[in-house]
Amino acid sequence: MDASPSTNFNHRLRQERVGRNWRQQDLADQLGTTVVTIKRWERGSQCPSAYFRVKLCALFGKSAEELGLLLEDQQPARPAEDKADTCVETPPPSSSADFPNLWAVPYARNPFFTGREELLRSLYEKLNREHSMALTQSWAISGLGGIGKTQIALEYAYQYRQNYSAVFWISAATRETLQAGIITIAELLQLPEKDEQDQEKVLQAVKRWLTTHQKWLLILDNVDDVAIAHNVVPPERPGHLLLTTRVQALGTLAQRIEVETMGIVEATLFLLRRAKILAADGLLEWVSEKDLAGAEAVAIEMDFLPLALDQAGAYIEEVGCSLSAYLDLYRTHRKDLLQHRGQMPTDHPEPVTTTWSLSFQKIEQTIPAAAELLRLCAFLEPDAIPEELIGEGAAQLGPVLESIAKNAFKLNEAIEALRKFSLLQRNPETKMLRIHRLVQAVLKDAIETEEQRQWAERVVRATNAIFPESVEMVTSSQCRRYLPQAQICTMLIQNYAFAFVEAASLLYRTACYLRDYALYEQAEPLFQRAIQIREQELGLEHLLVAEALHGLADLYLEQGKYSRAEALFERALRIREQELGVEHPLTATSLDRFGHLYYRQGKYEQAEPLLLSALHTFEQALGPDHPQVASPLNNLGRLYWQQGKYEQAEPLLLRASHIFEQVSGPEHPQVASPLANLGTLYWQQGRYELAETFYQRALHIYEQAFGPEHPQAASPLHGLGILYCQQGKYELAEIFYQRALHIYEQMSGFESPQVTYPLNSLGLLYCQQGKYELAESALERALRVREQAFGPAHPQVTYSLNSLGRLYWQQGKYELAESFYRRALCIRERTFGPDHPMLAEPLNGLANLYREQDRYEQAEAFYQRVLILRQQHLGPQHPDVAETLHDLAYFYRLQQQTSEAVSHYQHALAIREQALGPLHPKTEETRNALTKLLQEIR
User: Fold this and answer.
1) How far apart are CA 752 and CA 398, in angstroms?
2) Within this chain, do residues 329 and 445 fall inside the same structural domain, yes or no?
3) Mean pLDDT of 2-14
4) What are the residues whose beta carbons fall under 8 Å from the beta carbon of 661, sequence distance 6 or more?
5) Range of the domain at 302
6) pLDDT attached to residue 348
7) Does 30 map to a domain?
């Protein structure tokens, strides 16, 4: 039963969401909240918090008032009147009595017509611009058969009929129907020539009338032959001409508006109305969650094509089945349902299959290569088909396509034939082709199983031919361009059980790209399948097996699954040592990655000899200035700065940067990585101006090479945010954190582990500013994402737990703070053991907490444990050791143990002066504390 809408709905917020064709789930994902919360906001039962109000305003580009987010007492006074700021004022919808005297529209208004408001409004404004030339008063609604062109034109005629004194409709599908329409108009106008046997005289009379009268609308429906339509239309047109057509090239006849498929919101609403689940004027809020979800699923399966949705709705109404039952039936009997139009009379009697099959037949008869191209596109990702796949993959696509792929004229001829029926769209700027998913479905259903397998294999081989051999920063834009096709190929490889070497190669390179963008769940099965195929086809000890093992090991390394990574690195290293020897560069690559694995685990003593060995092998085999030498240099530099060995780290990072500059130039993206690492090194040393310079240079290189929204730019942006936060430049820090967060969200998704780094930093920034509500929201989101990505007991989760512990400690919520610190400590002890330096952070947090609670014995014990861990694993002169000594000194000062306090301050000061320099803020902090204490003693 339909529910009545609540009077408390936030219609403004809902209108903005629906206007973008976003579901409530889409909005929730972008904000990092739940569908339930979005529903409460739109129903008016809950108001968004300050944090989400800021996010909503930024997302929609509207003020809080414009989104209806202010409470009544916060609403500013409204101006007395609003001035129109558009050239054309859209009139109100017509009433039933507003029909013009001359009305020749053969169809009744569609009671189920849904959406398309923006298109209709745009069409009205285009037709009614002042001082329009004849051509600009002629517009064509163009698109695929079944896209809803006729219904849009019909709705336009009814909605804006009061603006015209005459509205004419002619079917232009054939010369005969067009001539019949001309005669109908002549009779309606009572022209003297209406009974003439010479139809040319009738046509000229109608054209004269159109030339000498204004305020008319002539609709030519289903124009397939532009030349015939040209003959009907007078050269001077004081009225409005509107065409519907599949043709995309119209010459001087009219300008074109391309009709896209419906958005998910209007498609869902249309289906519910057509199936009579909703009233013709019903809203989505009035249906159950079950029906809403079912309608969305069907709409997605129909790829939002109006004719297919109309067929589905008619079937559901006539048969009386549920939405979920129809969806189940469609997935097993797709071909039958797409051919079924239903028994009810309709203005579009042909089903989807018939609508397109006639076009397919014409193309097959006239240009067979175009038909082959269409079949190829049926097996590709439909929305982003790169034209170079046809050219560069020609050798894999069969003899017919291979013959035209290298001939630009012939290829254009084939594409032109498909565009004539709007079966294929072409974007000349991006050099991408597009095909509708249902067109693909109808084409596949017409192909025999064995031929389907042949086309699937051709697609895999062609995509493998164009996907970059090396997946790295400089090829990332190409990889991203071809990724949709590569992902379709992974499904084809699985569905058809392909096991040829080229399939494994494509799987491996696709997995590498996905891994580099933190899409680990998608990448892992591709690596695993690539390994299986290579082992099966090449043998267990083949070098390409080692390559795939390496790729999967790197994925596990990034996920923190260190034992799995180590086992795979060991096997890959063994294969390379056996096949290539210990002095080969590929063997050195394994050593370099092994060393990085140990570095990530905090096993610094085990990491260093492996990295040094890799460095030595690269230098001996390739020379001291080869680009591959830079990788162990970079990793050693990071290792040494982590150990507080800043003087050793700096020259290694500078050398890595210099090598890349010499080989590739100072603006090459490879240069940016060591530059960003140098920025971090200088920040840790308190050399803030230098740090900023290096971060900014790294950022500039990435932005110049890839654009400001590339994921590589996020790392120096985040580094700059940390730097500015350390300097107390909180507004600047927030801007850079938000930029980094936005990039990760756009490129990797709102639930990607990468978003947690700037989120965590934002949370700590807000904590420092006392913005506890914002801090808690950001930190809780980071925790939720990490738990979902890694599991609740993974070491990555502990970074969020420690940050939340700090937040609650700062708020005086000691029980909450202790529970988070304890959970972090438990995870790290279980993962790394009781004597690992990773335990220091939660232990230190607990020590600070116990100090504030006057639990002095526990606090001192924890401080001492932190000190021992850091001295043993980082060395006695590490800055983190000085941090703990400083904390202990403050603790002893509170306990009135003055001599212990002085001793620890002095020890901390000596380390900081040596490691960080006398002017570092941390050094000055300890020096000032010691000076104050000594003054108090005197």
Assistant:
1) 40
2) no
3) 54
4) 668, 671
5) 264-339
6) 52
7) yes
Instruction: Name the band, by pLDDT with cuts 50, 70 and 90, for residue 16.
Output: confident
What's at 637, amino acid-wise?
Answer: G
| Out of 79-88, 317-326, 511-520, 684-693, least confident range | 79-88
Residue with token string 């580009």: 61
Tell whether 290 and 422 lie within a shared domain.
Answer: no
Percent of the chain with pLDDT over 90: 50
**CA distances (Å), 606 to each of 52, 557, 582, 611, in order?**
46, 16, 18, 9
Q: How far is CA 329 from CA 336, 439, 823, in A?
A: 10, 19, 49
Residue 322 shares a structural domain with residue 248:
no
Q: Are residues 271 and 223 in the same domain?
A: no
pLDDT at 345: 46
Cβ atoms of 500 and 537 within 8 Å: the answer is yes
Give me the CATH number covering residue 41: 1.10.260.40
Positive or negative, the CA dihedral 200, 204, 209, 210 is: positive
Tens digits of residue pLDDT in 337-387: 877 765 554 555 567 777 677 788 888 888 999 999 999 999 999 988 999
Q: Could you tell me if 328 and 442 lie in one domain?
A: no
Residues 6+ apart with CB under 8 A from 578: 541
Cβ density class 315-351: b for 16+ within 10 Å, e for less: bbeeeeeebeebbeebeeebeebbbbbbeeeeebeeb
Same domain, 358 and 430: yes
| Tokens describing residue 25 | 């789930």
Of 466, 501, 522, which marks where a domain is finished?
A: 466
Longest dimension (CA), the chain: 123
pLDDT tens-digit profile of 587-598? 999 999 999 999
Task: Sheet containing 216-223: give its strands across.
Answer: 102-104, 166-171, 216-223, 240-245, 138-142, 255-258
How many whole angstroms separate alpha carbon 390 and alpha carbon 418? 15
Would you put residue 584 in left (φ > 0), alpha (ψ -120 to 50) or beta?
A: beta
- How many residues would you count in the chain? 938
383 and 268 both lie in a single domain: no
Distance CA 278, CA 298 (A): 15
